[in-house]
């Protein structure tokens, strides 16, 4: 009787979650998979109506065979190699600095560093587009007056420009996560290290960082998944800035262009599914790799 009541209570409490999960996750993913198996074809040399026909895996083959789609993954690879180490190292360094005994005005700096994350991504991108534009930006003018010339919209400057925007948005957010994990460390452990003669650097690198390893793994995993979904920042740079960022610069932009500019929803769905599978594979690799490192430790 008691077990039945427990099961009923669990079902009532978990029911809303599973309903929302089904409606917001399972159904859209299932619909995207179904949509990716069909394509629209025009009849009568383009003068007749269109009809939806089953195409099997043709949309997946078309996406993988498109050079623009493959190059988008190359861009994501460069973005991840550039952005993720800078984000993790920068957020961790700031958190360790705020957690040190030398830090002053911790509340102020936490708020100041977190505030950029409160700005919506599209607004942040627009702000930085203004700061990147030579005719408008005081930053570019100051750089030019100092003899530093850099085109943020050039083929070589587009990726660093977007990485800078993403760092500005997410550095403070992840710093707060690391700082909260550092604050949860038992202070007696740190006091024991000090008594044993460990300096500030040794304490930070040999004691604090290993103890917040779970937070590092979580942030790394979420950052990898978020990096694969890169869309807003390059989309803003693509619109009317003369940037080297094209409409198919990332896989997400490729799917967006296929759906809303070319009206090829089957191809867009196939590209989205391929991107989701890539994210799932990388998430598995990250968790498996970090899990093995943890066991060795």
Q: Would you mind describing this structure in some detail?
A:
It is a single chain. This protein has a two-stranded antiparallel sheet with strand order 1-2. The chain is flat, with a radius of gyration of 24 Å. The chain starts with a helix and ends with a helix. It has 13 helices and 2 strands. By secondary structure, it is mostly helical. Helix 5 packs across helix 7, helix 8 (187-195) runs antiparallel to helix 9 (200-211) and helix 10 (213-228) runs antiparallel to helix 13.
Summarize the structure.
This protein has 297 residues and is mainly α. The chain has helices at residues 2-36, 58-65, 67-99, 106-118, 121-132, 138-145, 158-183, 187-195, 200-211, 213-228, 232-238, 251-260, 265-296; strands at 38-42, 50-54.
What order do the helices and strands come in, and which of them pair?
Layout: H1 2-36, E1 38-42, E2 50-54, H2 58-65, H3 67-99, H4 106-118, H5 121-132, H6 138-145, H7 158-183, H8 187-195, H9 200-211, H10 213-228, H11 232-238, H12 251-260, H13 265-296
Helix pairs in contact: 1-13, 2-13, 3-7, 3-10, 4-7, 5-7, 5-11, 8-9, 10-13, 12-13
């Amino acid at each position: 009787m008691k077990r039945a009541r427990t099961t009923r209570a669990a079902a009532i409490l978990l029911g809303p979650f599973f309903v929302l999960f089904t409606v917001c996750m399972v159904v859209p993913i299932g619909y995207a998979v179904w949509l990716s198996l069909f394509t629209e074809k025009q009849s009568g040399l383009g003068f007749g109506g269109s009809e939806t026909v089953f195409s099997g895996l043709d949309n997946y083959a078309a996406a993988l065979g498109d050079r623009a789609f493959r190059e988008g993954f190359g861009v994501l690879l460069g973005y991840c190699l550039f952005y993720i180490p800078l984000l993790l190292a920068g957020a961790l360094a700031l958190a360790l600095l705020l957690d040190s005994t030398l830090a002053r005005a911790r509340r102020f700096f936490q708020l100041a560093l977190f505030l950029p994350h409160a700005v919506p991504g599209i607004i942040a991108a627009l702000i930085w587009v203004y700061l990147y534009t030579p005719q408008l930006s005081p930053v570019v003018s100051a750089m030019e007056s100092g003899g530093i010339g850099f085109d943020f919209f050039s083929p070589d400057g587009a990726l660093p420009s977007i990485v800078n925007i993403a760092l500005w948005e997410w550095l403070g957010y992840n710093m707060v996560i690391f700082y909260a994990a550092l604050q949860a460390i038992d202070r007696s452990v740190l006091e024991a290290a000090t008594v044993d003669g460990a300096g500030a650097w040794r304490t930070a690198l040999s004691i604090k960082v290993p103890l917040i390893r779970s937070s590092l793994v979580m942030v790394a995993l979420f950052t990898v998944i978020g990096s694969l979904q890169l869309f807003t920042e390059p989309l803003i740079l693509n619109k009317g800035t003369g940037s080297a960022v094209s409409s198919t610069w990332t896989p997400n932009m490729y799917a967006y262009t296929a759906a809303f500019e070319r009206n090829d929803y089957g191809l867009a769905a196939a590209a989205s599914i391929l991107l989701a599978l890539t994210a799932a594979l990388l998430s598995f690799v990250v968790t498996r790799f970090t899990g093995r490192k943890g066991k060795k430790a």
